[in-house]
Predict the structure.
Amino acid sequence: MSTIPLPPPYRIKVVEPIPFLTPVQRREAIEAAGYNPFNLRSDQITVDLLSDSGTGATSSAQEAAAAQGDESYAGARSWFRFRDEAADLTGYPHLLPVHQGRAGERILFSSLLQPGQICVSNTHFDTTHANVEIVGAEPRDLPCAEALDLDSQEPFKGNIDLVALAETLAGPDGARVGLVLMTITNNGLGAQPVSMANLEAVQALCRRYRVPFFLDAARFAENAWLVQQREAGYQDWTPRQIATRAFQLADGCLISLKKDGLTGIGGLIGLRDDALFARCEANLIATEGFSTYGGLSGRDLERLAVGLREVVDPLYLAGRAAQTARFAQMIKDGGVDVVEPAGVHALYLNAGRLLPHLTPAEFPGHSLGCQMYLDGGIRSAELGSLYLGTLDESHRLTSPAPFELVRLAIPRRVYTEEHFAYVAAVLAGIAKDPERIRGYRIVSAPALLRHFKVRLAPLG
Ligand code: F0G
C-alpha cells in the first residue's frame, strides 16, 4: 500500500445549496425552536450534523437503478433484486423489508418479547429502548468497562460486558431474558465498534442459555471496517466477508438501512426461525405493507440493492474513516476533546470537560450544541443529561448521565474537508472562551423520548 492518503472514490455531480444566516437570524431561529435543534428548519442550518440517518448522497448507479424500479403491489422485480443482495450479504433465509429501523424494532419485539421479559444489549439506541418498553419488556444495557474511559485507545469499546451478560443469564433474572441485541457499531456509546470475538462469545452464551441473539446492524459495514483495521486475524478479510460472518453468528438482525444502506429510507428484518418469521410477516402486512415491499417503493428497493454493494467497497470505507479521523484531529487541534478512538459515523465531543463551569443540571452538552448553532449555524445532537438523565416532575435533574457529550454525526458522501474545517474553526472559537457559555433549563418535556420534543430556555 502506498503511504499517500487516497481521496474518496467518487466525485460530485449534483450539488445542493446550503443556507448562511446572520447571527441575529440564528438567534431568532433557535429561540423560536425552543432551543431544541430538532425544531429547526433545515433552511436555517449551514452544516447539519444532527444525524447520519437517511442524510447520505446516492450514487449515479443507484439513481440509474431507481429508474428501473418496479412498483407492482406484490412480487415486484425490485424486491427480488434487493432480497437477493440482502440474502447474499446476511445469509438469513427469511428477510422482511420495512420502511425504517424502528418499524422493524416494533414488529420484532411485539412478535418475540413478552411483558416482563428483559432485552439485554451492549447499548440500546433510543428508539430501540422505547420499542422494548412499549411491549412491556425491560431494556438493559451492559456496556463493557472500557467504554467508560472516554480517552483510552481501546479498540473495541462497543463490546458488551461478557461477565455481566453471563451473570445475568445464569442469575435470578436469567429466565426473563427474552433477547440479546448487539448494536454494531455502538451508536449510543461513542460509535465504538464491537469485536468479532465479543460477538462469538455472545453467541456461545446465548446458545447455552437458549436465548435468541440478534444484531442491531445499522452500521454493519463500518463495524466490519473497524474489525478489519483493529482485530487480529481479520486483516486479509474483506469488509463484506466480515459483515457476513457477523450476521452468521446471530439468529437474526434488525437493520436501519438509512445508514449503511446508503439511501434516504429503508430497513430490514433478517430471521432464521420459521415460526417467528410467520408472526413478523403477518404483523408487517397488517402495519407496513405487503412482504415484497414493506412500506418501500420499488425505486427505494433498487437504490438499496446497489447501496448494499457500494457500502462495503474497501475504498469507500477507507475514505470515510479517514475523513472522520481528519475531522477529529482538526477538532482536537482547536482544543476540544472527542471520545477516543474516533469511530466512523460520528464524533462525540466531551462537553463536560470543555464546560466545567456548568453542572449537569445546566446541560453542558446542550449548551455547547446551541452555541455551535449560534456561532456557525451547525446542528448537532446532545448525548448527555438532557437525553439520558432522570428528571423529576418539575423537570429538575435527579440523576445525571455518565457523560455530557455532543454527537457530530457525519452524513455519507455529503460534506467536504472544507465543511469539516469550518465546523472545527467554530469549535476552536468556542474553546478560546468557554466561560461565556450559559446553561439551560427545561421549559416543557414529554415523558417518552424527551429529547425530540423538549423545549428549553437559557439561564441567567
Ligand atoms: N438502531 C440504531 C443503532 C440506530 O442508530 C437507529 C437510528 C435505529 C436503530 C433506528 O433506525 O431511524 O431507521 O428508525 N439512528 C439515527 C441516528 C436516527 O441519528 O443515530 P431508524
Observations:
- Residues 51, 53, 100-102, 125, 127-128, 183, 187, 216, 218, 256, 258, 267, 409 surround F0G (CB under 6 Å).
